[in-house]
Design a protein that fits this description.
The complex is a heterodimer of chains A (734) and B (530). With 734 residues, chain A is of the alpha+beta class. Chain A is built from 22 helices and 28 strands. Chain B is globular, with a radius of gyration of 25 Å. Chain B has 20 helices and eleven strands. The chains are: A alpha+beta (734), B alpha+beta (530). Strand 1 of chain A pairs antiparallel with strand 4 of chain B, so a sheet runs across the interface.
Chain lengths: 734, 530
């Protein structure tokens, strides 16, 4: 339960880098350490210090209330400070979202709050709450979503009203979806900046499977695919009292609070309950995995496999093992790899557990590039030593003492007690699970630990990930087996050169009317939609630094995604073909060459900008047409229209009188980065019910680069199905 | 004194809109402060919510006190404070002591040959290095590794750690209340008889910490270069973790000297919060901590940073996404305007109503995050008030600078609104209340305020200072501080893929410096105003 998520957390990131601490995390001890112990005979000074019995302590248990509609409420009074905190946890989270919409819950978790309620915008809520130094925040996780509040006691009624309103009546306003989406795009673009982020992301994918819901990550495309309706649908299918557990802690009277909650939520009708999704795990093959990162001098090593669940009877022995092997300053890994060898600052690990799915078993460290192989060997050695040098009874005792003597810290505040109880309720664990945990740990023996080690630690099953700079490693990683390079290149957004990751904006009435007029001017929507293919002949004049080059061209366009261009000039004839499956060109003396992916995409992009293609999507909800004022073009006061659709984003400049598109402009990739590209359309002619421009002048950053004069445009020509096939003869390219 | 307390109560009453005033006022009754004859200050705060306590030992020395040529030493000693004492962590201290002295002699001989001889003989240097390593090995045989931390953990120690920054070094953990006497023993022994065992292995651990936080992290690299550029005279120009060459040179003897000078009772405040009473705890604390001999408080003066007279810029070309950071010099925490800076940070940065969020993230939609904060890299000495912004894809660092400067200009030329001023004041009261709800948080706050101001009550008076702030104060301080000549800019720009990085990084021990990864940065420039 996160009581107060802070939307702005990078300050912490910045300042944390300035403070240096002794420990990151660590683990257990070795044979060498075990040898040291026998030296003591008489009690040491510190062993003579008496330990009186602990003051009796009976932590207050929260009051559990179940409403007739299925809502569970926990009330925990804490009168120390005049504060009230609360959270509602709702079943269902990102693990239930289709992979193609990964990122949906990140957007939901943010816009649920920032998008405001039916009656108040998110900005109004911000003002209302901040002047009271209060928070109401929303969040989404793997298995649940949550909404929390935090306020001074005196403001509770004001703040609770916002909390309840947001819970029941969120509005998910589009402008905030836009901000959330941009924020996610930003996070995607930055996800390879820091080695630790790469290591945790990729190691989860190795342990769980790349597409497993606990490991997969948002991509530009999956974030772009999320719509406002998705957010509304999610809310409407999950947020019902029977799926909600509420916990409130602070300075209130339980009876009054109960009455308030009953009054607010009692009449809320039950809804469909949330099903737990069936999730498959598809771990990577054991072996060595490498992410190359050249701007680092430290390698991060992660050895992972699937862990287990907390309701596993082995859980207690596993916890004792974890403490002894990799848990603290006294653990084997910390002592042997950090203290004795100085190989790492950060080292530790163990068999991870989760409430309702396997946690991740993970052994991790960071070491200088030049001791990467040495460190892998050292970690392997620690795992091997578990057989030859089993965890000793002394180590078991130390681990159990550490867990049991610090046990009181599990419930040393009313808020912690509440948080535990809510978790057990959520996952269907017994409400006294914490007490069972204590007695479970007390019963663990050395034999139990010895039994679970071979059951859960399999050296030959580990997926070993290294994030680092292999040029500086002490030995090649192939020493340890087959190395698989992990490509972490971020898949660019669809139509990246044009889109810059922007989501199509909404159409407006003026824009739609103007687009309809442009479509009419070309021959009307139904005529455009009857066009399946187009063949054009044109004379192309290309302006090059060496002077103008003239060519006779023919282009055949099969909508929506097949393009064949052939042409010839003084230098001979060539063809370029681009389809979703193939991209190649032929040219004199070159044979057949595949187009680089980017060039193929650029070529196909031409269809997406085609006037007819865009006109065909006049009423496609995936396309938007938005009016953006007027601008003087070709002596006309052109109306500017922003056109957006999947993989395309450009502007049309439309003559408001004739409806003709005078110009298109868009951002194109150029050799020196993005360039402003535009094409002027002139010489409009009508043939076969279509009115189209026969002269097209293209410019980049204001300089004319080419002119095309059309000689014929033929609609729905007969096209040989082989036209787009790659020639079988892979000509003699060298 | 009485008047001050009355004033304090008045402030406390202001905080509490309705009931529960007694909870805040009760701090006066719950807190006992005692200065031991040796100069050590002890604070005991009763908070009997659960049978546990937390402590916070504040040592008024940080990396600003690192001796010349030994950057990172304060932090290094902090690591050594977990290595035990002459009784904890040793099989035979008399023999170990002799062995450790041999290590230091061998190390001094090795370092002299490595660094000082006119014509160093590589073979001789290698022999001396081997001899030193052999001496380390000989000393290691007496070590019971990690025994100090093992005792703490075995007894239920929680959140055991320590931290070092430019200003101070802090030690902390929590225990069940029945371990109070054990704690007093351990914490006093630690600062009575620390032993520099396993020093050189721990030094490698610290170098790994540097690689993790600085060398292999683009933001870490930027912050180090940025701070170094912003401060030229002040000791704040040195990184807390230390430069690699210093880390590869200083000795256990140096760490012991640092300890002898700065870890003296008059320079330390120990704060206990939790299920403890002064009746029971004070005699125990006196019994154990009075053993530490008294010593004059060390001179902690550092060089005063002269006024900056032109903008400075550091630009790193990195294989990572862009970031914009800028900082302005401001006076230290004792400045009468300290609270005004806090108010500006709150106004500009706190939550979605903050000016930078609204301007850059919400309205202009050019950044994913933007904020301003004070206390970079510390606040005990004159330091920086900084602003940063993370540009969204497709937006430039220049747009970040322009948008931040637009907001700064508003601060200088227009009064903030009544609603904003009210919000700042309300939030400072609420933030104080929220900081009082945990043993460890409270121990830290009380300890720092006692150490810095000589009186823990300053924690509560902060709110009063914020309450007195006027709109004119904010304009005045903004005009005084946020001027171009007083500015240092730090930028990460994305290096073009395939572009070779010029790496003039700090050396890493196994490679010649020119060959190392771009440990520090790709390009740095300093110079005149734009």
């Amino acid at each position: 339960m996160k009581m107060k998520p802070q939307p702005l957390s990078k300050i912490a990131l910045l300042t944390a880098l300035l403070s240096f601490t002794c420990a990151a995390f660590g683990q257990a001890k070795t044979g060498a350490a075990a040898q040291a112990a026998p030296a003591k005979q008489q009690a040491k000074e510190w062993e003579k210090i008496p330990t009186p019995p602990l003051h009796p302590f009976h932590p207050a248990q929260p009051r559990r209330i179940e409403l007739p509609n299925g809502m569970i409420i926990f009330l925990q009074e804490d009168h120390e400070l005049p504060l009230i905190d609360g959270v509602a946890r709702i079943r269902g989270g990102s693990r239930s979202v289709p992979a193609a919409k990964t990122g949906l819950m990140d957007i939901y978790g943010e816009v649920w709050r920032t998008g405001g309620t039916k009656t108040q915008t998110g900005d109004q809520l911000d003002d209302y709450l901040e002047v009271r130094a209060a928070k109401v925040e929303t969040d989404a996780g793997g298995d649940s979503t949550s909404i929390s509040l935090s306020c001074l006691k005196a403001d509770f009624n004001d703040v609770f009203r916002v909390f309840a309103d947001l819970l029941r009546n969120p509005e998910f306003r589009a402008d905030k979806i836009d901000i959330a989406r941009k924020g996610l795009y930003d996070a995607i673009s930055r996800r390879n900046d820091e080695p630790s982020e790469i290591a945790s992301r990729v190691s989860a994918q190795l342990a769980y499977g790349k597409n497993n819901p606990y490991a997969r990550i948002p991509e530009y495309a999956s974030v772009a695919a999320v719509t406002r309706q998705d957010l509304v649908d999610w809310h409407n299918s999950h947020v019902y009292p029977n799926n909600i557990i509420i916990g409130i802690v602070g300075d209130f009277d339980s009876a009054t609070m109960e009455a308030k909650l009953r009054e607010t939520f009692g009449s809320w009708e039950k809804g469909p309950s949330v099903a737990t999704p069936q999730i498959d795990f598809d771990p990577a093959k054991p072996g060595i995995y490498l992410v190359k990162k050249t701007d680092v001098n430290q390698s991060l090593i992660r050895m992972v496999e699937l862990g287990t669940r907390r309701d596993n009877p082995d859980y207690y022995a596993i916890q004792v093992f974890n403490e002894a092997f990799g848990g603290g300053f006294s653990s084997r890994l910390f002592k042997n790899i950090r203290s004795a060898k100085g190989l790492a600052y950060s080292v530790g690990g163990g068999v991870g557990t989760a409430f309702d799915h396997p946690g991740m078993e993970r052994f991790a460290m960071g070491t200088k590039s030049a001791s990467t192989a040495q460190s892998i060997e050292a970690l392997y050695q620690q795992i091997d030593d578990l057989k030859t040098d089993p965890i000793t009874p002394e180590e078991i005792k130390l681990a159990k003492d550490s867990i049991l003597n610090s046990f009181v810290f599990n419930y040393d505040s009313p808020e912690k007690v509440l948080r535990e109880r809510m978790a057990y309720e959520f996952y269907g664990y017994p409400s006294d699970f914490l007490e069972r945990f204590r007695s479970g740990i007390e019963k663990v023996t050395a034999a139990d630990v010895a039994r679970i080690i071979p059951k859960y630690i399999h050296k030959d099953q580990l997926k070993v990930l290294v994030v680092g700079n292999p040029a500086d490693f002490d030995k090649p990683l192939s020493t340890f087996g087959t190395v698989t390079d992990v490509d972490i290149t971020i898949p660019p957004p669809a139509g990246a050169t044009q889109e810059q990751g922007e989501k199509p904006q909404a159409s407006d009435a003026a824009g739609e009317a103007l687009a309809a007029k442009a479509v009419d001017a070309m021959g009307g929507e139904s005529r455009l939609q009857s066009i399946k293919s187009l063949q054009t002949n044109f004379d192309l004049t290309q302006n090059t630094p060496q002077g103008d080059v003239q060519m006779k061209m023919q282009a055949t366009l099969l909508y929506p995604d097949h393009l064949y261009i052939s042409g010839g000039g003084e230098m001979g004839s060539f063809t370029v073909v681009a389809t979703p499956d193939e991209g190649f060109m032929t040219a004199p003396g070159m044979g057949v060459r595949n187009l680089p992916a980017s060039q193929k995409a650029d070529t196909l992009q031409q269809i997406k900008r085609d006037l007819i293609y865009l006109g065909q999507h006049l009423h496609d909800p995936a396309f938007s047409f938005k009016s953006e004022g007027n601008e003087k073009i070709q002596n006309a006061d052109a109306a500017v229209l922003s056109v957006n659709g999947p993989g395309v984003s450009l502007r049309w400049y439309v003559d408001p009188q004739s409806g003709r598109v005078l110009r298109e402009s868009y951002e194109a990739a150029g050799p020196q980065g993005p360039a402003q590209a535009q094409t002027d359309f002139q010489d409009w002619k009508t043939a076969g019910g279509l009115t189209l421009p026969y002269k097209r002048t293209s410019s980049r950053d204001g300089k004319v680069v080419s002119t095309s004069q059309y000689t014929s445009i033929q609609v729905n020509p007969s096209i040989s199905p082989k036209l787009f096939d790659k020639p079988v003869v892979e000509a003699q390219s060298k | 004194m009485k008047a001050r307390i009355a004033q304090l109560f008045a402030i406390l009453l202001l905080l509490t809109v309705a009931a529960a005033a007694q909870d805040l006022a009760s701090f006066e009754k719950r807190i006992t402060v005692k200065k031991l004859p040796n100069g050590l200050t002890v604070i005991i705060c009763r908070r009997p919510e659960a049978p546990v306590f937390s402590f916070y030992t504040h040592v008024d020395a940080g990396s600003a006190q690192d001796p010349l040529g030994k950057t990172g030493l304060a932090h290094m000693f902090e690591h050594m404070a977990f290595k035990g004492t002459d009784k904890i962590g040793t099989k035979n201290y008399p023999a170990e002591k002799v062995a450790l002295e041999k290590v230091e002699k061998a190390y001094a001989a090795y370092i002299y040959a490595r660094d000082k001889e006119i014509h160093p003989d590589p073979q001789h240097v290698q022999q001396l290095e081997n001899a030193w390593k052999a001496a380390v090995k000989a000393a290691d045989q007496y070590v019971i590794p990690n025994q100090f931390t093992e005792i703490v953990e075995r007894n239920g120690g929680q959140d055991l750690n320590a931290s070092t920054d430019e200003d101070e070094t802090n030690y902390f953990y929590s225990l069940p209340e029945n371990r109070l006497e054990l704690w007093a023993y351990l914490e006093s022994e630690r600062f009575l008889h620390p032993v520099m065992r396993q020093f050189y292995d721990e030094r490698n651990v610290v170098i790994e910490e540097r690689r993790m936080r600085v060398d292999s992290n683009p933001i870490g690299r930027l912050l180090e270069q940025f701070t170094t550029a912003a401060f030229q005279a002040s000791q704040y120009h040195r990184p807390t973790v230390g430069w690699t060459s210093d880390l590869n040179t200083f000795s256990a003897t140096d760490a012991q000297k640092f300890f002898d000078e700065y870890y003296v009772p008059s320079n330390m405040v120990v704060t206990l919060v939790g299920d403890v009473t002064p009746e029971r705890a004070l005699p125990i604390v006196e019994k154990y901590f009075s053993r530490i001999p008294s010593h004059a408080k060390p001179d902690e003066r550092i060089t005063e940073e002269p006024p900056q007279n032109s903008e400075r810029r550091v630009v790193l070309y990195e294989p990572s996404q862009p970031l914009y950071l800028e900082g302005y010099h401001r006076p230290d925490y004792r400045s009468p305007d300290d609270a005004v800076y806090d108010a500006i940070a709150d106004l500009m940065s706190n939550g979605r109503t903050s000016r930078l969020y609204r301007a850059l993230v919400r309205d202009k939609k050019i950044a994913s995050d933007s904020a301003g904060f004070t206390g970079l890299p510390g606040n005990k000495y004159p330091h920086l008030f900084a602003f940063y912004a993370f540009p969204l894809p497709g937006h430039t660092t220049q747009e970040m600078a322009d948008a931040i400067h637009e907001e700064i200009e508003k601060l200088k030329t227009q009064d903030i609104s009544d609603a904003e001023l009210k919000m700042i004041k309300t939030r400072s009261k609420a933030a104080l209340i929220r900081s009082l709800g945990s043993n460890d948080g409270l121990a830290t706050e009380l300890g720092i305020y006692q150490a810095r101001y000589g009186d823990w009550r300053e924690l509560f008076r902060q709110v009063d200072r914020i309450n007195k702030i006027t709109k004119a104060d904010i304009r005045r301080v903004a005009n005084q501080t946020f001027v171009a000549n007083n500015r240092t800019v730090g930028i990460i720009e994305t290096a073009k893929p395939g572009a070779s990085q010029s790496s003039e990084g700090s050396s890493s021990e196994n490679q010649p410096p020119g060959n190392s990864p771009p440990a520090a940065h790709a390009a740095a420039s300093q110079g005149g105003a734009q």
